[in-house]
């Protein structure tokens, strides 16, 4: 091979690599890859609730359900952009579908495929209860993305996807969730309410001047962290569990408090958008605060997911 041919071959390989990186980057943007790391902490929190009851389960089951929850989240964000393509063409033309990097048809196909895969994984890992929980999440996702977005029912549907994700984690021990005391069932409800409040703010992200929506999200965050404190204290934690749990709760307040204050002071898209992103990622810290009631290792297992989420959020958008 002469020098020119060799150079052309190298250039061809380089072009292929660039194309592959661009494709991977596009799909990472489509599924909101930083946000995917906020899904496993929900499952870990659910599993920690079961651990408190003394029911046994395998770590492999938790890992499997966490993978299923990632598929559900990826399917949800993909379908969100597929359904919103006409709106995004006007408001967010840089997104993968309106920019022409991904076809709307391909996005619909990928989104629904990910939901079906998630339900299948849940069934294989933890049987019918897990498949039912994953199926309910999938239904809530499609309902929100396709029909309910922007309405009160839509905010609750989005919140329910995360609350049900916690419930999904409880299925590692079969029907343990049905046998848990009311105190444990409160946790998914708190997560649901928090995300519903954040979704209310996110729905008005592009409007500007909507300080009331920011206040709703802030109220949701305050209520959630107070509930986490109550949950931790009511479980008679050890000194170490109390310290770690409180540390996660304080970190949550700091993490979401700064951007929410900025958004409240000047509620424009450039401040509300980051506040939405911070609140989404902040769910990891909230999950960790709750999970610490079952033991420090549970809190740390949930909280560690913030590291890759934050790292990737510096490259890819969260909202």
Describe this structure in words.
α7 (152-170) packs antiparallel against α9, α10 packs parallel to α12 and α11 (239-265) packs antiparallel against α12. The chain folds into two domains: 31-179, Tetracycline Repressor, domain 2, CATH 1.10.357; 181-305. The protein contains 14 helices and no strands. The relative contact order is 0.13. By secondary structure, it is an all-alpha fold. 81% of the residues lie in helices and 0% in strands.
Give a short summary of the structure:
With 319 residues, this protein is an all-alpha fold. It has 14 helices and no strands.
Give me the secondary-structure topology:
Blueprint: H1 3-30, H2 33-36, H3 39-53, H4 59-83, H5 85-91, H6 104-148, H7 152-170, H8 176-179, H9 182-203, H10 211-234, H11 239-265, H12 269-291, H13 296-303, H14 306-313
């Amino acid at each position: 091979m002469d020098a020119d041919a060799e150079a052309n071959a190298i250039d061809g390989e380089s072009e292929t690599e660039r194309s592959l990186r661009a494709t991977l980057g596009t799909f990472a943007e489509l599924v909101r890859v930083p946000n995917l790391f906020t899904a496993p902490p929900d499952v870990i929190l659910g599993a920690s609730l079961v651990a408190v009851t003394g029911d046994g389960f395998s770590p492999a089951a938790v890992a499997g359900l966490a993978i299923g929850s990632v598929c559900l989240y990826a399917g949800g964000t993909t379908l969100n952009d597929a359904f919103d393509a006409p709106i995004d063409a006007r408001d967010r033309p840089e997104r993968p579908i309106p920019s022409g990097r991904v076809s709307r048809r391909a996005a619909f196909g990928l989104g629904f495929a990910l939901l079906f895969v998630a339900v299948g994984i849940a069934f294989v890992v933890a049987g019918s209860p897990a498949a039912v929980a994953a199926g309910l999440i999938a239904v809530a996702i499609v309902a929100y993305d396709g029909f309910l977005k922007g309405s009160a029912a839509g905010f609750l549907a989005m919140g329910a996807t995360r609350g049900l994700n916690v419930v999904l984690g409880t299925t590692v021990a079969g029907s343990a969730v049905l046998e848990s005391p009311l105190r444990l069932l409160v946790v998914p409800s708190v997560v649901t309410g928090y995300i519903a409040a954040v979704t209310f703010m996110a729905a008005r992200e592009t409007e500007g001047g909507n300080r009331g929506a920011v206040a709703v999200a802030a109220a949701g965050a305050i209520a959630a962290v107070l509930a986490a404190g109550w949950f931790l204290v009511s479980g008679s934690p050890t000194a170490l569990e109390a310290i770690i749990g409180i540390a996660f709760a304080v970190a949550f307040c700091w993490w979401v408090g700064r951007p929410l204050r900025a958004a409240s002071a000047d509620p424009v898209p450039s401040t509300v958008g980051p506040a939405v992103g911070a609140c989404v990622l902040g769910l990891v810290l909230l999950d960790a605060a709750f999970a610490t009631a079952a033991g420090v290792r549970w809190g740390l297992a949930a909280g560690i997911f913030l590291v890759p989420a934050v790292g990737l959020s510096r490259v890819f958008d969260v909202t």
